[in-house]
Design goal:
heterodimer; A: alpha+beta; 8-stranded antiparallel beta sheet; 5-stranded mixed beta sheet; 6 helices; elongated; B: mainly alpha; Rna Polymerase Sigma Factor, Chain: A; Arc Repressor Mutant, subunit A; 9 helices
Chain lengths: 275, 186
């Protein structure tokens, strides 16, 4: 070993590395969680596979649940658009993958052509009070943005889908993709075992983060595309639409989506005000 | 019967049999090096923690595919480092190595050893600054091989490249560091 190599090794021992978190306890908790029987499972329907295989199965099942959460949220925002014509091309030139457990976000050299913007299809106009009576979850409102200007309910989806629309205002600049200051989407996704994908170009930043300990993904910068794969199809990506900055946040069995032209800090503040 | 700590091969065998206690012990053995390796790649403690957690969970799921008798740490670091690469953010928000040098001498260095004296604060700063100026692949190779003290095999696994590539990256990086330090110290 040369003198420089010795100096480098010594330097490594003198660095203040970030404190190592208790990864073992958290991994153990996740594996325990994966091995527990599902709520309401029939005791007679005991999985007799070895524990490790059972754990893997549960982990995969939970990944599928997260896919369903993500898909359901995207379905809330689907436009009356056509099938994504460039299906083969979207599978080319993938530069990076980002995981959202079941969902994937892919970064590519360049985005495939996107359809023109259409009117958002968010469901039936309603009020928060009426929606509360039909939804199978307690709706969350980002109080930092005040009361929504419009409330939409899509009761075709199991559990119901809620959309809260806010006009552009101070701190909520108009988003090109929606024409709104803030669009909030919420619903339970545990009934739609589907698959969500996102495609982002080089100019889009994708960060995994936690908001008050809850898993979240922040997508910022150039617009990105959504696509999904129906569960019974080999590969049938459907184009949904372009989206502006988006914060995806998991709140228990809800997935909450905040979209707008605002900053990451503003999105986090909005997420923290959800009650 | 003598009560001795189980070796890693025993732990892996028990974990493959479904013993979560054994796997938890494996994680404890490797969590620091896994977390630091992820940090070298992401330069974010939060991302490194997630990468380490997800990497260990995925490694657990992949245990049936782990080749019995093979070294465990390179295999594990490859999985964790891959998770870390998936979380690499855009430029400009990473912690810098130079910000993480010990500000004070540690108590046990109160009387500097010859090596400690060699690495005085000015030289450390020069060396860290020179490392930061290296291209990313070379910087990560230096960080893994020397700062983390990984073996060549482990460095190759963490960086997802052949050992020959690690050797050549290290050789070029060391040459460049020597040149920069010589210029700075001239």
């Amino acid at each position: 070993m040369t003198d420089l190599e010795r100096r480098l090794t010594r330097l490594g021992s003198e660095l203040h590395w970030p404190e190592t978190p208790d990864v073992a306890a958290r991994v153990r908790a996740r594996l325990n969680d994966a091995m527990e029987p599902a709520d309401g499972a029939d005791p007679a329907d005991v999985d007799r596979r070895p524990p490790l295989r059972r754990a893997r199965r549960r982990l995969l099942a939970r990944a599928g649940l997260r896919r369903s959460l993500a898909l359901a949220l995207v379905a809330l925002l689907v436009l009356a658009g056509g099938v994504f014509a460039a299906v083969p091309s979207v599978r080319d030139s993938v530069l990076e993958f980002f995981g959202l457990q079941g969902a994937t976000v892919e970064r590519r050299d360049e985005l495939p052509p996107a359809p023109a913007l259409h009117r958002l299809e968010l469901g039936e106009r309603t009020t928060l009070e009426r929606a509360r009576g039909e939804l199978r979850f307690e709706p969350l409102v980002p109080h930092a943005a005040g009361s929504p200007d419009h409330v939409f309910l899509n009761s075709q989806v199991p559990g119901g889908e809620l959309a809260l629309a806010y006009r552009p205002a101070r701190g909520l600049p108009e988003a090109h993709s929606t024409g709104l200051g803030l669009l909030v989407g919420e619903f339970r996704g545990d009934l739609l075992p589907e698959y969500l994908g996102k495609i982002a170009g080089q100019a889009t930043s994708i960060d995994r983060l936690r908001v008050d300990g809850r898993r979240a993904i922040w997508i910022e910068g150039a617009p990105h595309l959504f696509f999904y794969r129906p569960p019974d199809s080999d590969f049938a990506e459907s184009d949904l639409r372009l989206a502006d900055n988006v914060l995806l946040l998991q709140r228990g069995n809800l997935l909450v989506r905040l979209e707008g032209g605002f900053s990451r800090d503003r999105a986090i503040a909005l997420a923290r005000s959800l009650e | 019967m003598e009560d001795r700590p189980p070796n890693e091969a025993e732990l892996v065998a028990r974990a493959r049999g479904g013993e979560l206690d054994a796997y938890e012990e494996i994680v404890r053995l490797h969590q620091t090096i896994a977390f630091r390796t992820a940090w070298v790649i992401t330069r974010s403690a939060a991302d490194a923690e997630e990468a380490a957690q997800d990497g260990f969970v995925k490694a657990h799921a992949a245990l049936p595919r782990f080749r019995e008798g093979a070294p465990f740490r390179p295999w594990l670091l490859a999985i964790v480092a891959n998770e870390a690469r998936n979380r690499v953010r855009g430029a400009g928000r990473h912690a810098r190595l130079a910000q993480r040098v010990a500000e004070e001498r540690r108590p046990d260095d109160a009387v500097p050893s010859p090596e400690a004296a060699l690495l005085d604060s000015e030289q450390r700063a020069l060396l860290l600054a020179a490392i930061e100026r290296l291209p990313k692949p070379a910087r990560e190779a230096i960080a893994c091989r020397y700062l983390l003290d990984l073996s060549e095999e482990e460095t190759a696994a963490a960086l997802d490249c052949p050992r020959g590539t690690v050797k050549s990256r290290l050789a070029r990086a060391l040459d460049r560091l020597r040149l920069e330090l010589a210029e700075a110290e001239a």
